[in-house]
Specification:
By secondary structure, this protein is α+β, with helices and mostly antiparallel strands. It has one domain: 2,3-Dihydroxybiphenyl 1,2-Dioxygenase, domain 1, CATH 3.10.180. The chain contains seven helices and 16 strands. The strands form two sheets. The chain has an eight-stranded mixed β-sheet, covered by helices on one side. The radius of gyration is 21 Å and the shape is globular. The two termini are about 40 Å apart.
Length: about 375
C-alpha cells in the first residue's frame, strides 16, 4: 500500500497574509485601531442584525437532494473496478455519449465514455458517475499540494457497517489513504443527537477524495445494508469564509443552515490531512440534501475550480421539486447558469437541467426530480 505521507503530505504552518490586505478595504474603525486608537461603543440605542439557524422543516423548500457524484477519470476501467469490486456498487449503464447533452464547463465537443453505478440495496445511496477524462487531463485538486484549507468541493462521503473491515478491503486493493480510521465525537444539540463515528479518507482511481464513515452508536436506528459498504450520500465543501457559501445555497436553492459545530481534534485533523492544531467549523445546509459546509480557520488557501475536463470529484447532481422555480430564484439573485442541459442519470437519458457554479468554484448540475 502506498505510504499515506507520500500521498497527501503534512502541511507546514501557514504564513499569515492578513497584514497584507489592501488598504482600500480597511474601514475607519479598523484604521483607527491600527494607529493605536480605540473603537468606541455607540452612545445611542440601536438595532443590530445577526444570523440564526433555520428550523429543519423550513430549511429545504425545493426538497433538494444529491442524486449523483460525478468523478472524472483517466482510467475508466480502473474506476469501474474500484466502485464495483471494492465498494460493491452495480454498473447500471456504460456508454459513449454524443456531444450536446450539456454545456457544463469542461464537457467539450468530443464523445466521452460515461458510466453510472448504483447501490440498489441501499436506500440512502446516490449514484456515482464516471466520466472519461480527456487525454492528459490535469487534476482538479492536485496532490499532494492541495488540502482542506483550499476552498471548494472536497469529498464524497459513504458509509460502512465496520470501519476495520472496510479499511482492510480498500487497503488490500492498494487504495491510497491519508490515515487509518480515526474516531471522533461531536454533540449536536441542533439535531438532538450525538455524532459518534469512525472515518478514514481514501482516494478513488480518478483522484477523488472520499470519507468512509461508520456510526459507533447503536441507538440511531439507521438502516444497515447487507454488505460492507452502503454507498455514497454526502458531500463536504470547504471554505475560509462560510458566509458567501451559505448565501449561494440560500439564494440558488433555498437551502438554509440548520447546524454548526466546531472541530479542534487531532484525530479529525489526521483524518483529513490538516495540521495537528487545525481548527474548523462545520455544519449542514438544508435537511436531506446531504451537504456539509466547512470553514477552515486558515490564513490562506487556493480555490481550485471544478471542471469536467479535469480529473477528480468534479460535480454534484442535485434534484429539485421545481426546476423552473429554482431557475427563477437564481435569476432574481443574479446567479447565472454556467451550462444548459444535463448528463444522463438513473431517472432518464435526457433530463431537464442546468449547471451552476458555487461560491468556491464547485459545480452543481440541477435537475428536475
Amino acid at each position: 500500500m502506498t505510504d499515506p505521507k507520500n500521498i497527501f503530505g503534512r502541511r507546514t504552518a501557514l504564513t499569515s497574509a492578513v497584514a497584507a490586505a489592501a488598504a482600500s478595504t480597511v474601514t475607519a474603525p479598523q484604521l483607527a485601531q491600527a494607529q493605536g486608537g480605540s473603537i468606541r461603543a455607540p452612545n445611542m440605542v440601536m438595532g443590530v442584525t445577526g444570523e440564526v439557524f433555520t428550523p429543519i422543516s423550513d430549511s429545504n423548500p425545493l426538497e433538494a437532494k444529491i442524486t449523483a457524484f460525478t468523478t472524472v477519470s483517466l482510467d475508466v476501467d480502473a474506476s469501474i473496478k474500484f466502485y464495483r469490486d471494492v465498494i460493491g456498487m452495480t454498473v447500471m449503464s456504460d456508454e459513449t455519449l454524443p456531444v450536446g447533452h450539456t454545456t457544463a464547463p469542461g464537457i467539450g465537443q468530443r464523445k466521452r465514455r460515461h458510466v453510472l453505478l448504483d447501490m440498489p440495496q441501499s436506500i440512502r445511496s446516490s449514484a456515482v458517475r464516471i466520466l472519461e477524462a480527456p487525454p492528459g487531463a490535469e487534476a482538479i485538486r492536485p496532490r499532494p499540494g492541495s488540502g482542506p484549507n483550499d476552498p471548494g468541493l472536497m469529498v464524497m462521503e459513504g458509509g460502512t457497517r465496520d470501519p476495520a473491515e472496510s479499511y482492510h478491503a480498500l487497503a488490500s486493493a492498494g487504495t491510497p489513504m491519508i490515515s487509518p480510521p480515526r474516531y471522533y465525537y461531536f454533540r449536536n444539540t441542533m439535531w438532538g443527537r450525538d455524532v459518534d463515528v469512525m472515518s478514514y479518507a481514501p482516494f478513488g482511481p480518478g483522484g477523488e477524495q472520499m470519507f468512509i464513515t461508520a456510526n459507533i452508536r447503536g441507538d440511531r436506528g439507521l438502516p444497515r445494508g447487507p454488505d460492507v459498504h452502503n454507498g455514497f450520500s454526502n458531500a463536504a465543501i470547504t471554505s475560509l469564509d462560510q458566509r458567501p457559501v451559505n448565501v449561494f445555497f440560500e439564494k440558488a436553492l433555498g437551502l438554509k443552515r440548520t447546524s454548526q459545530m466546531e472541530c479542534y481534534q487531532k484525530n479529525c485533523n489526521e483524518l483529513i490531512g490538516a495540521p495537528d492544531d487545525g481548527y474548523f467549523l462545520w455544519g449542514n445546509v438544508g435537511q436531506g440534501v446531504s451537504i456539509e459546509v466547512w470553514e477552515m480557520k486558515s490564513a490562506s488557501g487556493t480555490v481550485y475550480p471544478c471542471s469536467l475536463d479535469k480529473t477528480g470529484l468534479a460535480m454534484l447532481t442535485i434534484r429539485v421539486n421545481n426546476l423552473g422555480k429554482c431557475l427563477a430564484m437564481c435569476a432574481d439573485a443574479g446567479i447565472e447558469p454556467v451550462g444548459e442541459g444535463a448528463l444522463p442519470n438513473l431517472q432518464g437519458d435526457r433530463p431537464d437541467g442546468f449547471t451552476l457554479r458555487g461560491a468556491v468554484g464547485e459545480l452543481f448540475e440541477i435537475v428536475q426530480a
